[in-house]
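Much of what follows relies on a compact textual record of a protein's fold. The record below shows the convention in full:
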Amino acid sequence: MSGTLGTGHFVSWEGGFLVIGHAMGVTPMHSHYAIQIAFGSEPGIRFRPSDREPWTAYDGVVISSRQPHTMDATPVPFHAVLFVDPETREGRALTERFDTSGITGLDADHIGDAAEALFAAWRNERSIPAIEAAARALITKLTAGVEPSVVSDERILRATAYIRSNLGSTITLEDVADVACLSPSRFRHLFVEQTGMALRPYVLWRRFLRVWELIMDGESLSTAAHSAGFADAAHLTRTSRRMFGFPPSMLEVDGPLRRTDSGAVRAGSYKPPTAAAVRN
């Protein structure tokens, strides 16, 4: 894959993230580790499980981990793609509810109001907290009310703070367990209990989130990769394709997005065009 597939925002949270914007091309056939939820601002986003099969238009989809697919979001003005780690509480609930055919269609009963609220938050609120809250509310609806894991144990809070502060270095189970003042075996059990994820995928998710934060703040892909603990930009690209199906370079991000509801500005986000402008 090469070139830019679209322009939009990137918004993240523990165990997941959202890409929302305007598609400029068709995503080639791929598969990835993350569970994918995708839908358009109106019906018509298209998917197919192989290049030999015809396109199917959907209101929205849930795509299971490792399921090959290609996406065409060019028929809709705007689209949203949410990625959820399969090991989180929400990821397991999505798998149990929708992992039947690999690509499972969603109708208005599944996403209608929640999808509208997400696009409204993106277009009108223009703040990271509002967009994140709307995205997580949609996931909660799709999981029939499953709530995300909340870290409350002080030892695990120390561990996650250590991880976020040392993403550019090697992070071992022994080092993090020592920060938490626990044996590695006890730490491993408590970390999964508190975060819903094992340590290794948690660290990898944090590395990706750090990459996007740096890119949206204007850093180069190479600088972001090194700062987040990847060997180089090529290593980041390979790992991103495996995890999510696309490298960070394929989403163009620019323009203002507020960090908080009070109006602080975050660099590197995209101000969406009107639907009329897209159609023209």
